[in-house]
Design a protein that fits this description.
Layout (H helix, E strand, L loop, with lengths): L12 H38 L5 H15 L9 E5 L2 E15 L2 E10 L2
Antiparallel strand pairs: 1-2, 2-3
Length: about 120
């Protein structure tokens, strides 16, 4: 038998609790961010569909129909519709705030345009 001392390796209980709390907080934030990303994808899809219109009111009407189906908060009047040659370009930008704790919020800024 060896007579030397063996050092224990690993994480202490306090360290484990700290890591668990940090991961739980990150999980809560990610769980609140994912719906805004899904909303962004729906808005991007609606903008790409709306570019098929020929006039500004028609583009906004197509976008509003998509908004009624996918249920996001941006409306046709929030769009910036331009004509680039014979191609219609629909662009948008908006913000979403995610409350964290107390006065702290996470501000998400989304911007995009039709392809």
């Amino acid at each position: 038998m060896k007579t030397g001392q063996y050092k224990q390796r690993g994480i202490s209980f306090i360290g484990l609790l700290f890591v668990a709390v940090v991961l739980a907080c990150a999980g809560v934030v990610v769980a609140q961010v994912i719906p805004t990303l899904i909303e962004y994808q729906a808005i991007d899809k609606a903008a790409n569909k709306a570019k098929e219109g020929n006039t500004v009111p028609e583009v906004r009407a197509i976008f509003d129909r998509s908004q009624a189906i996918d249920d996001f908060k941006l409306s046709g009047k929030d769009l910036d519709v331009k004509k680039d040659g014979d191609k219609v370009v629909v662009s948008y930008s908006y913000e979403r705030e995610i409350p964290l704790f107390g006065p702290a919020v996470l501000l998400m800024r989304y911007k995009g345009q039709s392809r």
